[in-house]
Automatic annotation (TrEMBL):
One annotated GO biological process: flower development
Similarity comment: Belongs to the Frigida family.
Transmembrane spans: none
Record region (Disordered): 1-39
Record keywords: Coiled coil, Developmental protein, Differentiation, Flowering
Organism per entry: Linum tenue
Protein name, entry field: FRIGIDA-like protein
Coiled coil spans: 136-198, 279-313
Matching InterPro entries: Frigida
Keyword Coiled coil tagged: yes
Keyword Coiled coil: yes
Length: 495
């Protein structure tokens, strides 16, 4: 690489020298040298050609002339050659008075003409010399013009020299640049050698790493096999964990079920305890009712005597009762009908049950009839009737509804619940009578409101409905509701 750069540098320097020095080759003869110098300095080529023709004519004159006259043409040729040389020197920048030389040459020519007039050869020579003289005059004018051109060419030469100096400076700068490039190349060669050494070291390390890589690949394959085995075991363990989770979920669900069952059992035990207590109370009440039954048996004998009389009037009441039931179009009429005839004939109750059962909404009809159980104060003042009879009629309607057990809608049940809460609120405000307690119990049983009332509340109602005086049982017997109260409480507990 260094040899190539040196050869390129030599070729560039030789080419540049050839370009700036094109005219240093030595001429073969004087005339040709003058022509070349004139051409190299910018002199007109036609003038150089004419000088060359003049020198050739002089040579011919030398061959044709005699030996005696040969000195003068030679002297003339020498003069012309010297003038041509002066021209050449002028082209090269030498300051010589060309015009004086030409005048001296013309004098020599005149002398030669006077001395050579004797012979024909001298005439020919004189003719030639005269022609040369004319030509020299012509050349003198051309040389004057040529001098001006030489001045111009001289200034141009100075400019060229200045440009040449600039080129030399530029060449020196380029040589310095080339020297810096060579230094850079040497540095890069050194760096390249270092890089080659590094590359060799890297190749050696790569070879070592490739060996290690092969061993690592083998180790990696063994690791992959072990990882596959561990993944398979992990999947199996994952399935086992899923099964364990499912089993745990099932166990937690079973535990919740057991807790719920325990809670329900505890609740049922509490309910059973309450029912057992109520059952004891009912047993005590049954003992009381047995005593009442004895009194009622005596009353039954009296009733049997009166039934004979009633059987006679039965046919009359059947026809009359049918007409009255047909007039009971709404709950108010049904309540009034019961209030008017409940004391007259117990047989009408069977027909009341059929009327309730044949109505469109039996529960709604009975619920509307319950509005007279607690009438407002204005109605008590306006209407003169026995409140106990109205309440008995309401209880009778609830009993018939409980026997029929029709389908009760949610709206009707909600209204019944609202009415039961109102009755309970009235009972909490003032002491309740036995008819009020029995009516509330029958309302709860007939409309299926047992789930909304606790057992303790019913127990409280039953206990609060019992009079605290000594003649409490007599009062219940006189009202004839002791058995009804016990039956209603028992039905509520069963529900």
């Amino acid at each position: 690489m260094r040899q190539n750069i040196g050869s390129r540098k030599k070729r560039c320097s030789t080419t540049f020298r050839d370009e700036i020095e094109p005219s240093r080759a030595p001429p073969r003869d004087m005339s040709k040298r003058s022509a070349k110098v004139a051409a190299g300095t910018g002199v007109d080529i036609e003038i150089a050609e004419k000088l060359m023709t003049a020198s050739e004519g002089e040579n011919q004159a030398q061959t044709n002339s005699s030996s005696s006259d040969s000195v003068k043409p030679k002297h003339l040729f020498a003069t012309i050659e010297s003038s041509a040389g002066h021209i050449a020197f002028a082209g090269m920048g030498v300051d010589i008075k060309i015009s004086e030389k030409l005048m001296a040459a013309s004098k020599d020519v005149n002398q030669a003409q006077t001395s050579s007039s004797s012979s024909d050869s001298d005439n020919r020579v004189s003719n030639q010399m005269w022609g040369l003289k004319e030509e020299l005059r012509f050349k003198e004018a051309e040389l004057a013009m040529l001098g001006e051109r030489i001045k111009d060419y001289k200034t141009e030469l100075e400019r060229t020299q200045l440009s040449l100096q600039g080129r030399q400076v530029e060449l020196a700068e380029k040589e310095r640049c080339l020297h810096s490039v060579e230094e850079l190349i040497t540095e890069t060669n050194l760096k390249l050698e270092d890089r080659e050494n590094q590359y060799k070291a890297v190749r050696r390390s790569v070879a070592q790493i490739s060996v290690e890589l092969r061993s690592n690949e083998k180790h990696l394959e063994s690791l992959e096999r072990s990882i596959r085995d561990s993944m398979a075991k992990e999947k199996a363990l994952y399935y086992v964990n899923d099964e364990m989770k499912e089993c745990c979920q099932i166990l937690t669900f079973k535990e919740r079920e057991l807790k719920d069952i325990r809670k329900t059992i505890e609740a049922k035990n509490k309910v059973l305890d309450v029912k057992w207590k109520l059952l004891k109370e009912i047993k005590s009440k049954i003992a009381l009712t047995t005593e009442e039954l004895k009194s009622k048996e005596e009353h039954l004998k009296h009733v049997e005597d009166s039934t004979v009389k009633l059987e006679r009037k039965l046919k009359q009441y059947q026809a009359f009762g049918t007409d009255l039931l047909l007039d009971a179009g709404n709950a108010r009429d049904l309540q009034l009908l019961l209030g008017e005839h409940i004391r007259k004939n117990d047989i009408l109750q069977s027909k009341i049950s059929s009327v309730i059962q044949n109505s469109i909404e039996p529960a709604k009809l009975v619920l509307q009839a319950m509005n007279g159980f607690h009438p407002p104060a204005s109605q008590n003042r306006d209407v003169d009737y026995d409140l106990s009879v109205t309440r008995r009629s309401c209880i009778t309607l609830l009993e018939h509804l409980l026997e029929i057990r029709p389908w009760i809608t949610d709206d009707v049940r909600g209204e019944a619940m609202k009415l039961a809460k109102e009755w309970k609120a009235r009972m909490m405000m003032k002491p309740a009578t036995s008819l009020e307690i029995l009516g509330l119990l029958q309302l709860i049983s007939a409309f299926g409101l047992a789930s909304d009332f606790g057992v303790g509340e019913v127990r409280q109602l039953v206990s609060s409905g019992r009079p605290q005086q000594g003649n409490g049982s007599e009062t219940w017997r006189s009202l004839g509701i002791m058995d009804d109260l016990a039956v209603a409480a028992g039905a509520f507990i069963v529900e």
